[in-house]
């Protein structure tokens, strides 16, 4: 029997996978999709949600968000929460690029202000922010310094003059998870991390100059400091080779751990360990260290972006009001308190290709935003819009305070390279008035806007179901890619 026979639509844009599909399911599977996306969704991704629902200590719902697609063990665009007492942690539920995330920087500039400087801005951003596969940062750390980066994240960066003290207020976790422990990160991961700190990476990672094109909620937009016509800069980057190595190292450990602790899993890629074991605790500490690396990385790039704008525009970054709107992690697992059956419960919430979308009142949200819920940053593609939303009470009730993280791939990189040519994509972007600078035409082809699902439908489902509400639409003027 196909999994689809066990799925029912429970309201508009919401589907549930019932436990009758697999008797081992301990939670209900939930999919936030419109009808078209539901019909087009790979069976494999639905099965992955059902598999995740079989893991020990999983609570309430195993969730597929509007950008869900097939991933390593867990789908991308997925959330699962595990009880601290009897649950597990699984590296596959976080992903290889630990704390891949998105940051949005505001300015008080308009399109007109930068129109004749745009070429220069793009050239200089491309030069000043190292990018590309295996790209190396501009600084060289010694061994003590990489440990500080891993233990203190963006705090380390700001203390070393990359950015402003006030920046930290506007980063998820203030850019530093205290439980991180660099001694749990292998030498190999540190060796990969040292030369790459302060670099964008390649492919899907990007730096974009955007314009606020539309405002859907003017009150919330004002709270976030966003205005129609405003120039903003979006960064999408993660923990580079360092996070990748941490994930690989601990997947190997977890592959033994789940057997040693007799955990019955439907797919080996869901390898995990009970939270009260040293394997789980060590992974969490190492994963947090990699998350801190990513925050330091985005912080350093923020600093160079400001310097570049200063150089080209001939004004200081403060004069241009280049503060951070927000910085979100979309590959991470964190300890959070959520209401379950009316009781506050401590959970380890895994978000893989999912953005936290905490609603009003949560103490984790910066004070300035607390009344309206946190900013949620959802990139689209280099040829389409991206969006800013805000977190909601509905998200707190239904999705452990989470929503989608992007448009979500529909074509693999290999397929995209077969179907599209970088030069053609560049030409069509230029025709739309979008400048692009990338290390190679192949990167452009892999990231062709057609390789992604329609981001408008992703954010519409989020908005209509209420798991995050629309605030603003931003559109690209220029993109740089590794
Ligand atoms: P991921 O972290 O899953 O690789 O990517 C997150 C999202 O970023 C993708 O789902 C896609 O929607 C978006 N994305 C990839 N490349 C670009 C780009 O060049 N510009 C923008 N605005 N979004 C992109
Ligand atoms: Mn990434
Ligand atoms: Mn990402």
UniProtKB/TrEMBL annotation:
It catalyses: a 3'-end 3'-phospho-ribonucleotide-RNA + a 5'-end dephospho-ribonucleoside-RNA + GTP = a ribonucleotidyl-ribonucleotide-RNA + GMP + diphosphate; a 3'-end 2',3'-cyclophospho-ribonucleotide-RNA + a 5'-end dephospho-ribonucleoside-RNA + GTP + H2O = a ribonucleotidyl-ribonucleotide-RNA + GMP + diphosphate + H(+). It comes from the Archaea. InterPro entries: RtcB (IPR001233), RtcB-like_sf (IPR036025). Mn(2+) 2 binds at residues 236, 330. GO terms for molecular function: GTP binding; metal ion binding; RNA ligase (ATP) activity; RNA ligase (GTP) activity. GO terms for biological process: tRNA splicing, via endonucleolytic cleavage and ligation. Its cofactor is Mn(2+). The active site is at 405 (gmp-histidine intermediate). GMP binds at residues 204-208, 330-331, 379-382, 386, 405-408, 481. Binds 2 manganese ions per subunit. Keywords: GTP-binding, Ligase, Manganese, Metal-binding, Nucleotide-binding. Its EC number is 6.5.1.-. Mn(2+) 1 binds at residues 97, 205. Belongs to the RtcB family. Monomer. Essential for tRNA splicing and maturation. Acts by directly joining spliced tRNA halves to mature-sized tRNAs. Joins RNA with 2',3'-cyclic-phosphate or 3'-phosphate ends to RNA with 5'-hydroxy ends. This is tRNA-splicing ligase RtcB. It comes from Methanobrevibacter woesei. The gene is rtcB.
